[in-house]
Amino acid sequence: MKSGVNIKYMFIQGFFWMSYCIATGFVSLYLLGDGATNVEIGIVTALFGAISAIAQPVLGRICDKSEKVSWKNMMLVCVFIELILCICMCFISGRLFSCIFIGSLILVANLCMPFVNSSLFYYKSNDININFGIARGIGSGSYALLALIIGNLVVIYGTKTVPAVGILITIGFILVILMMPYDARLDNSSLNASDNSNKKSIKDFVKKYPSFFTMLVGFIFLATTHNIVMTYLLQIIQSVGGNSEHLGVTIAIQAGVEIPVLFLSGFFIKKYSAKSLMVFAAFGYVIKAALFYAAGSVISIYFVGLAQMISFAIFASASVYYTGETVYEEDRTVGQSLMTSVVAIGTVLGNLIGGLLLDMYGIRNMLLTNTIIGIIGLVIVLLSLKVKQSELEK
Predict the structure, then answer these.
(1) Are 253 and 306 in contact (CB under 8 A)?
(2) CA 339 to chain centroid
(3) CA–CA separation, 104 vs 86, rounded Å?
(4) Cβ contact 251:21 at 8 Å
């Protein structure tokens, strides 16, 4: 029973990250194919990303407090909507419709993420040990493989390949969700924690944990650099003579190199403090941004993709542990939700800033500004260590 759940959860992570690849990995490629400008791409992705950042905690609160609403049926609703959107994208064309459909796909994929995480805690609270590192690594591997497949298929069959593959992925995802065991009577482990955390204001939280908040601000800047590159990766590759096939390979490399880091996340966290790993990841983001600015060929961009190992891959695992180490148990729900919001805010800022810079000043200036934003983020992260020291001295 327990091993079966573990395997099914690995499939959940695999299908989720493949659906996330459909929603976010080829946004520029799909919208450019229907005539959208870089600024329009930035506005669409930022707008729907902002809506998801606002809606995530609202849906999470509903899920926590209602006996009739669970992570399982919320996940099913999200994936079913993704299926409908992919079907619509296959048969309805036009710039406006494409912007609405792909934006909605981004929104729903982001909304699904907390429920994927909720399923993990549901099983853990019921004594079913889930190996998150391996499951999350399989998610990255699935994302990498699908990116490689789509990148090659688009060259042959065009951009409609993206939603067509999305239909297959979402059908598989729905079937796996339906097979996940669930008992509503056992799904009350997070209710008390959620009720207590919701009574605390963000202002009180910031006063209580100034170093944690400073770290969050730093990583908002770093997440912005990450999303500028990821959203406009196709344009970056085209500037050095590449195409959609090279885009797929680059995305696959970036996702693929995350796998060993995520598999070994348990080892890293035992050997090094989460705070040290967060600082290491901050340096990794700056190095990646600088290497993208320096890259002058498709091959060099492939090599830059390896920097994903020392940036996002480290952050993805260390951020969860860092919150657990820094924030007291009674505030942990608020802390984790704020850490999650870093990515959402970085998505909004990165998409808007990147689109404006790209259209007004070109690729090179966008990548230079991107590096500067990363350096600012790194400085703020290092400042958080000083703030922590001040906290300890009080």
Answers:
(1) yes
(2) 12
(3) 10
(4) yes
DSSP conformation letters of 154-175: HHHH-TTHHHHHHHHHHHHHHH
What are φ and ψ of residue 257, in 5° steps?
Answer: -75, -10
Contacts for 192 with CB less than 8 Å, ≥ 6 apart: none
Count of CB atoms situated within 10 Å of the CB of 198: 14
Q: What pLDDT, on the 0 to 100 scale, is given for residue 197?
A: 46
24/49 Cα distance (integer angstroms): 11
- Transcribe 32-95 into DSSP letters: HHTT--HHHHHHHHHHHHHHHHHHHHHHHHHHHH-SS--HHHHHHHHHHHHHHHHHHHHH--SH
CA distance 329 to 324: 8
Q: What is the pLDDT of residue 260?
A: 92
Q: Are 310 and 280 in contact (CB under 8 A)?
A: yes
Q: What is the pLDDT of residue 127?
A: 77
Closest CA to 127 of 6, 42, 280: 6
Q: Decide if 116 contacts 207 (C-beta within 8 A).
A: no
The per-residue pLDDT for range 311-343, each reduced to its tens digit, is 999 998 888 788 878 887 666 666 766 787 788
C-alpha 270/C-alpha 273 separation (Å) is 7
Say which residue the tokens 């998801």 belong to.
52
